[in-house]
Amino acid sequence: MSYHFNEIEAKWQKYWADNHTFKAENKSDKPKYYVLDMFPYPSGAGLHVGHPLGYIASDIYARYKRHKGFNVLHPQGYDSFGLPAEQYAIQTGQHPAITTETNIKTYRRQLDQIGFSFDWSREVRTSNPDYYKWTQWIFIQLFESWYCKNHQSAFPISELEKVFSSEGNESVEAVCDDNVNVFTAEEWNQFSSEKKQDILLKYRLTYLAETEVNWCPALGTVLANDEIVNGVSERGGHPVIRKKMTQWSMRISAYAERLLQGLDTIDWTDSLKESQRNWIGKSVGASVTFNVNDHDAVIDVFTTRPDTIYGVSFMTLAPEHDLVSQIVTDEQKAEVEAYIEATAKRSERDRMADVKTISGVFTGAYAEHPFTKEPIPIWIGDYVLAGYGTGAVMSVPCGDQRDYDFAKHFNIPIPNIFEGVDISEEAFSDKENTIIANSDFLNGMNYKKATKRAIYELEQLGQGEGKTNYRLRDAVFSRQRYWGEPFPVYYVNGMPQMIDLEHLPVRLPEVEKYLPTEEGEPPLGRADVWAWDTNTNTIVSNNLVTLSGVEGSHDNGIYPLELNTMPGWAGSSWYFFRYMEEAANRGEHFATEDALKYWENVDLYIGGSEHATGHLLYSRFWVKFMHDRGFVGVDEPFKKLINQGMILGTSAIVYRVSGTNTYVSKGLKEGHDVEEIRVDVNIVNASDEIDIEKLKQWQPQFENAEFILEEGNYIVGREVEKMSKRWFNVVNPDSICEQYGADSLRLYEMFLGPLEQAKPWNTAGITGVHGFLKKLWKLYVDDNGLKVNDAEATKDNLKTLHKTIKKVEDDIENFSFNTSVSTFMIAVNELTAQKCTSKAILEPLLVLISPYAPHIAEELWSKLGHDQSISTAPFPKFEEKHLVESSKNYPISFNGKMRFTLELPLDMSKDDIEKTVMAHEKTIAQLQGREPKKVIVVPGKIVNIVG
RNA sequence: GCUGAAGUGGUGGAAUUGGUAGACACGUUGGACUUAAAAUCCAAUGUCCAUUAGGACGUACGGGUUCAAGUCCCGUCUUCAGUACCA
Length: 947
Hints:
This protein is α+β, with helices and mostly antiparallel strands. It has six domains: 19-139 and 571-643, Rossmann fold, CATH 3.40.50; 282-470, Valyl/Leucyl/Isoleucyl-tRNA synthetase, editing domain (Isoleucyl-tRNA Synthetase, domain 2), CATH 3.90.740.10; 489-564, no CATH class; 647-736, no CATH class; 762-882, Isoleucyl-tRNA Synthetase, Domain 1 (Orthogonal Bundle); 885-946, Ubiquitin-like (UB roll) (Roll), CATH 3.10.20.590. It is 33% helix and 20% strand. The protein is built from 29 helices and 36 strands. The radius of gyration is 35 Å and the shape is globular. The chain binds one RNA strand through helix 10, strand 11, strand 15, strand 30 and helix 23.
């Protein structure tokens, strides 16, 4: 009986599905454990071998935890809204829902054939109306909430209204827009309801705001910064303009400090936490207000170095700063305008890339130093960014290198305010070893003291205060796309109104085309049936909307719906809660309280590091918000997080002799002028030899090509790069499963190397793990059937088993899956050599292997006479006693270099070891009569002879 | 520039608290079985010197600490990832 993996794997996959083997229970006596993968976007290309890496790792862990007696939740679903389906729809007219459905089918088939222990009964799809109903609901909750700085928590907006009507807004410490005016309770109560709504919008956690976007009229869409190259669109090269659009924003900045603090409570890698810290970008300092001479204007700046206030010799504004046009003098006007125009032409990216060039223009205006009252020239320069802080800086050339370079370049004085420091060559930015000088009341102080004092003095003047600044901006939440969640929002006189929960979901309308309208409205602008009837609470035809406010028209209660859709991260910011509820109970809640209480949050989350500052930050934000409002009990979504490394492709390259249709093999290409052409890796074997017949069929350009071979073969060149269709280096798991089986694929992906490390895919080694599975099979079964019997386990058998138990358990706990595969190989090699047939050994061994290679484990388990799945068999218990040795093979080293080994009893005393070793003939030979200076004996470890 | 991770045979990688560097595989070479191939099995395989015995060198590079360093410390270089004129 040989190892027919295809039959075995199909059999057990069917068994698991039929018996709901991996269905998690919401009520259990076992402790819970929640293992989650980042759910995939179902793209048309299907899975490649890189995708399953993280899934295999989490599956091993989930299966291990089941063996360890946990009630494990290990679900899977699809992040099924997204751009590729929409773009495909634009090209073909095919509805994205249909493409998505087809793609999901492919994904499911591919996932199933790898034998994952997912509980599919809890599947989630973000594009499913039953799901996005609750995404819409969370959006409404954000709209109905404000953030109180005093309590560091979100509260219902209705409570804020109560405060406004009883005491106005002066005492309210809220995170809100900057332009909120102070009003009293009386004033509030007399405001029109429109005015009240307008004010409340400035406090809501999601709000409408004018945002600058990159608008490409030719493509009719908004582009992200990285879709623009040299001021034109990457795709098509069309001009891009900055355009203000009214968009929904999320007040994530309210949570900046908690998002930062929360990082200390979770078990993530340092690099990931560091990424989030950088993204949040906290800096502590002060805001300082400078009066502008001869103008009724002030310049606010943020500085981390208020202690250097006496070193200010000029100010710099971003060219886009609002004040520039107001304060520029007539003499400087032409120059300033030319400069602004020149910078506007350069894209943000160009400006960032070109750090070396120093440019700027004097505005002709002066500000007044808050203490010395001296005039300070005001410059504009593009090294100051409009988007950070206030878009203006107080320039201290002696303490900041950029200010220093700017001052040198334009011959602006560089006053030195540091004691005993030479600033003739560069700025002195070391704040730890600073003594302030030439600074009046700050003289002689260090950074800490001077900072405190400067802030105090500024406060006395009313020209500044201590301030903490965050880089984290509020997140724009509107997208001009079709294939995303519609907002549950309609507009009455331009004011947004929320649709009640009972009328959700607001379903995506049908449109004829998935492009923006000719007027530049989002695709939903093409929908004919896209208005909200407040009388019936249904979506009705747009024609029924009356133009309210226009004289002669009457308000019939039918209003236009929002045309934008939500961004990709909306649905993925809370999906982990949805899995907690069993599908049957999902109707009334996004998840019931019991389910949320039982599963709490994700114990282990595995996914790619590309989500470090997107999904992982937004999810934390939404969870903190939901926690504040009492919808969930936890404050962080993911307790432990692991990033799997990317699996890279190994592209294959053929060399075409320039200007011909002749291809020269890699080894012979020297001397030829060649072009590198990437070809399909699937027609190249592990020895880099290409199948020329297949190549000719692959693309017509090779059909009549000539090939210059070396030793009868055409050898390709190799290049390791990202797995991508355009490099023809994508390897699909299907063919691996077919050829070697899912268990081989699972073992091999783990065996490739450490989980978190990026590594190139190379099928060469897969025969190794496949051979291992065959050997494992042969340990249990031969031509006559099952070999396993009740023979008593030998000492060696037990030693091998328990060594393996210990190592594998440690490895899984440390996510070191590659080394446990080696451990299995060693165990099987040893047991084969020992001719072990003992059930007492081979049965527990199967449980150890089952998380990694579940199909073969189930098959052999049932052959051993079990009628239940191996998946919940208890994990074997490690017993130290089987590893206790009586002797140790001591390495004997001379001056640290190991020369020979010596078997000695472990209970031998230090002195006896030394005596025995020193008397040994090899020792005498090594020393050649020399007297050792010192002999180090570490019992149980090593002997080192010095001299 | 900054932040983080890493650099070990022909290749992927192992060495968890400083204690026999190269586990386990792949590849290569030789052999067995076979008409042949596949499969399987056995042996060798860091580099260099040496017939052998054995020796020298060796974990990116240069220093250091230690009886002992891939591992700890200082400096340098390289690669990858993220981020960037952050005031």
